[in-house]
Amino acid sequence: MAADAESEKDTTALTLAEDLRVTLGKFIRGVKTKASTPTTSQSETLSHLDRSGPLSVAELAERRNVRHQSMRLVAGQLESDGLISKMPNPADGRSQLLSITENGRAELLRSRRARTSEIAALIEERLSQEDRRTLEAAVRLLDRLL
User: Fold this and answer.
1) Domain 36-116 annotated CATH 3.30.465.10
2) Residues pairing with 85 in the sheet
3) How far lies 139's CA from each of 55, 106, 134, in Å?
4) What whole-number distance in Å separates Cα of residue 118 and Cα of residue 122?
5) Which is it for the CA torsion 123, 126, 129, 130, positive or negative?
6) What is the spatial distance between Cα 132 and Cα 4, in angstroms, rounded to a whole number?
7) Where is this region: Disordered (predicted)?
8) pLDDT category, 11, cuts 50, 70, 90?
9) pLDDT of the residue at 135
10) pLDDT at residue 119 is higher than 70
């Protein structure tokens, strides 16, 4: 019986984890779409450069867990949009470092504010005070999972 209870607990945790993953994914994609913000690959890349400073394409690919070629394509688009720039890598003359530009920082800030505003509007429109308290508690729980 104890094995059955443990198995049920595991299944419940797995089911909850999958539901959470799917729901958060849909939520994030929906907010980004409504807020007209850059793709996840672009915003994550800008965020990494903003937090970490200049990085090579290889370092960015590793941090984002994507292929080098995919990262080069994203970086190329961000560079053509004026959101990142290239500079020589002082540690390796054969490679270049990517850094976020002032326009990139401004776009990152605009995107974050747009997504926050979109989420706030959804909360205002769709959640009661009790729902908001529940959401606040859920945010604290999610924070604990980190």
Assistant:
1) no
2) 99
3) 32, 27, 9
4) 6
5) negative
6) 36
7) 32-51
8) confident
9) 97
10) yes
